[in-house]
Design brief:
The protein has helices spanning about 5-15, 20-30, 40-45, 45-60, 75-80, 85-105, 120, 135-150, 165-175, 200-205, 225-235, 270-275, 290-300, and strands spanning about 15, 65, 110-115, 155-165, 185, 190, 195, 215-220, 240-245, 250, 255-260, 275-280. It has about 300 residues and is α/β, with parallel strands linked by helices. The longest helix has 20 residues, at about 85-105.
């Protein structure tokens, strides 16, 4: 059901369970995600599959559903011949689909509209490097139109996620200023650094005094990096921490395949909670079964 509380109010009272990787659930449902738009292609071609994936996570115990707009951009849609007006409609649809899935639940379900990094639009693994050669102003100009459309669609929060670079975080915070929707800011990291090599203390510091930011943290990273990053985020900002790492497998952007073994273990998330995490879930390769185990662990 649609929540009666704001996400910020809920985080002040409870630890909430995030969903897991949308793409792996869509693949499990038989969807082909080989297109450069990734799961965003299904906003046009098979929206019912996206709603079904959201519903699978809601049934598993997720209380926050992240929309399929991570790789959905005006530029990306334009490469497929989709005009601006239709692209805006598809971006709005991403919020509608998550909301529809959440409203079928008897629990409160919040919807987070995903605002992925510039590198996601390039579809070449740049979101794991940052340093695109663009200025903060250039990046703000890129992000603002999508932010405006997603905010108008009525999500509970904007998820500024998988951000590899503090410069892009600065641009995103400028782009969301005045949009009327709270946000969380989540970096993808390597150890105690952003993917672009900046200290997490400095990167999180950008959000420390921004009231619009209701949580800060990390996602799309190795589970082993979560605990130290959560401690830094909490210490620097004093805000609730959001964490949703990958399974522990590693993505080869050139081969477009995953390698290695999974290390995401719901039992270890209690240490993340101790470090300050109030919003906990999974990212790539973390499916509904793991989220169900996570929900059980956090309720225990």
């Amino acid at each position: 059901m649609k929540p009666d509380r704001s996400l910020a109010a809920a985080l002040a009272e409870d630890v909430l369970v995030l969903d897991g990787g949308l793409s792996n659930q869509l693949e499990a449902q038989g969807c082909d995600l080989s297109d450069a738009l990734w799961s965003a292609r299904l906003l046009a071609d098979a929206p019912e599959q996206i709603e079904a994936a959201h519903a699978a996570y809601a049934r598993a115990g997720a209380q926050v559903l992240i929309t399929s707009s991570y790789q959905a951009t005006f530029e990306g849609f334009a490469r497929r011949g989709t005009g601006h007006e239709e692209a805006a409609r598809l971006l709005s649809r991403s919020v509608e689909l998550a909301r529809a899935a959440g409203e079928r639940s008897e629990r409160e379900i919040w919807v987070a509209a995903s605002v992925g990094p510039y590198g996601a639009m390039l579809a070449d693994g740049s979101e794991y490097r940052g340093r695109y050669g663009l200025s903060v102003t250039d990046l703000e100009r890129f992000h603002r139109p999508r932010v405006e459309v997603l905010a108008a669609a009525g999500p509970d929060v904007l998820a500024l996620e998988t951000v590899p670079d503090a410069d892009e975080a600065e641009a995103l915070l400028r782009a969301v200023d005045g949009c009327g929707v709270p946000v969380w800011l989540s970096y993808t990291i390597d150890g105690r650094l952003t993917r672009a090599g900046q200290r997490l203390e400095d990167a999180f510091g950008l959000a420390a005094g921004v009231d619009q930011v209701v949580a800060v943290g990390v996602n799309c990273c190795d589970p082993a990096d979560v605990g130290p990053a959560a401690e830094i985020a909490a210490a620097v900002t004093g805000k609730p921490v959001v964490v949703y790492p990958n399974s522990g497998e590693h993505w080869d952007a050139t081969a477009r395949s995953w390698h290695g073994g999974a290390s995401f273990a719901p039992a270890t998330t209690t240490t993340w909670r101790t470090a300050g995490a109030r919003l906990i879930g999974g990212c790539c390769r973390v499916g509904p079964a793991a989220i169900e185990d996570l929900a059980t662990t956090l309720e225990g």
